């Protein structure tokens, strides 16, 4: 299925796909077929996002890297 992440504006990150390792950032290991807002990142200024098979990363405007990964 894969992992997909998208930045909408500067404050909304959505993810969907395989979440078996918790990498979608929704606090669970569920798969999502439709984009779902990552609530934990709503109040942060995000400038870049990327995803791998078991990790999702967001870079804030302050240079902080936030990783969501669970094995």
Proportion of strand residues = over 45%
Helix tally equals 0
What is the CA-CA span between the terminal residues?
17 Å
- Secondary-structure element pattern, one letter each: EEEEEE
What is the arithmetic mean of pLDDT? 86
Specify Rg, calculated over alpha carbons: 11 Å
User: Which strands sit side by side, in order, in the main sheet?
Assistant: 1-2-3
Shape: globular
Low-pLDDT parts are none
Instruction: Tell how many strands the DSSP assignment holds.
Output: 6
Residues in helices, as a percent range = under 10%
- Alpha-beta classification: mainly beta
Task: Describe the protein in words.
- With 71 residues, this protein is mainly β.
- The chain has no helices and 6 strands.
- It has a 3-stranded antiparallel beta sheet, with no helix packed on it. A 3-stranded antiparallel beta sheet has the order 4-5-6, with no helix packed on it.
- A hairpin with a 3-residue loop joins strand 4 and strand 5.
- It is globular and about 30 Å long.
- The two termini are 17 Å apart.
- The model has no long low-confidence stretch (mean pLDDT 86).
């Amino acid at each position: 299925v894969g992992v997909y992440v998208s930045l909408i504006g500067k404050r909304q990150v959505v993810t969907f796909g395989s979440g078996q390792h918790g990498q979608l950032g929704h606090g669970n290991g569920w798969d999502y077929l439709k984009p779902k807002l990552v609530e934990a990142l709503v109040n942060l200024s995000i400038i870049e996002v990327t995803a791998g098979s078991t990790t999702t990363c967001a870079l804030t405007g302050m240079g902080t890297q936030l990783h969501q990964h669970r094995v």
